[in-house]
């Protein structure tokens, strides 16, 4: 399956019941410029039973848990045999920018989203890379987001932040490092 911008999926090998998909974060969301890899496993009863879809790339989101499980109604009780792989991936891509914070799998991410919506998150404060997420709350304005790539000695103190961000690290503010793995 190819052709739609920002999504793709192909069988993992000769097994047509296991696929690998990719989703690009939608423009204008905090996930813009990020690419996620997903697994899709189709049950024997497909298309009458929904596939199991999981994020393989860590994703910090209210509707995605730390194991990559996704809370999305069309993958559960709202499943229809009319849905195809394209529909599934486009729905997940849409979910990235419009989470259901009333039914979260990741309550911490949901609280951040609720508390910062309209002020910080839409402008891109959540950025993640590999196994780390860093939120930097600046005293003079909205929250800024930075990526902290995994590295030996990677930790939650200012030395890690200084190493990751170099001179871009603000001299004042609160920092939160959240491991995603």
UniProtKB/TrEMBL annotation:
Pfam family, one: UQ_con
Catalytic reactions of this protein: S-ubiquitinyl-[E1 ubiquitin-activating enzyme]-L-cysteine + [E2 ubiquitin-conjugating enzyme]-L-cysteine = [E1 ubiquitin-activating enzyme]-L-cysteine + S-ubiquitinyl-[E2 ubiquitin-conjugating enzyme]-L-cysteine; S-ubiquitinyl-[E1 ubiquitin-activating enzyme]-L-cysteine + [acceptor protein]-L-lysine = [E1 ubiquitin-activating enzyme]-L-cysteine + N(6)-monoubiquitinyl-[acceptor protein]-L-lysine
Biological processes annotated in GO: cell division
Superkingdom, natural source: Eukaryota
KW Coiled coil (keyword) present: no
SUPFAM superfamilies per the UniProt record, alphabetical: UBC-like
Record has Transferase as a keyword: yes
Function noted in UniProt: Accepts ubiquitin from the E1 complex and catalyzes its covalent attachment to other proteins. In vitro catalyzes 'Lys-11'- and 'Lys-48'-linked polyubiquitination. Acts as an essential factor of the anaphase promoting complex/cyclosome (APC/C), a cell cycle-regulated ubiquitin ligase that controls progression through mitosis. Acts by initiating 'Lys-11'-linked polyubiquitin chains on APC/C substrates, leading to the degradation of APC/C substrates by the proteasome and promoting mitotic exit.
PANTHER family with a match to the protein in the record: UBIQUITIN-CONJUGATING ENZYME E2 (PTHR24067)
Protein name: Ubiquitin-conjugating enzyme E2 C
Classification lineage: Eukaryota, Metazoa, Chordata, Craniata, Vertebrata
């Amino acid at each position: 399956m190819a052709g739609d911008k920002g999504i793709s999926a192909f069988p993992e090998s000769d097994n047509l019941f296991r696929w690998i998909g990719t989703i690009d974060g939608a423009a204008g969301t905090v996930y813009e410029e990020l690419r996620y890899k997903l697994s899709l496993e189709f049950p024997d009863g497909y298309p009458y039973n929904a596939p199991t879809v999981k994020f393989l790339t860590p994703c910090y989101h209210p509707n995605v848990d730390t194991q990559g499980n996704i809370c999305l109604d069309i993958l559960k009780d709202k499943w229809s045999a009319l849905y195809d792989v394209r529909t599934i991936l486009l729905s997940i891509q849409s979910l990235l920018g419009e989470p259901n914070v009333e039914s979260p799998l990741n309550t911490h991410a949901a609280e951040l989203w609720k508390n910062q919506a309209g002020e910080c998150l839409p402008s891109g404060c959540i950025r993640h890379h590999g196994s780390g997420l860093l939120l930097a709350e600046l005293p003079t304005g909205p929250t800024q987001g930075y990526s902290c790539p995994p590295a030996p000695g990677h930790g939650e103190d200012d030395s890690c932040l200084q190493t990751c961000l170099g001179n871009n690290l603000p001299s004042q503010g609160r920092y939160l490092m959240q491991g995603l793995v």
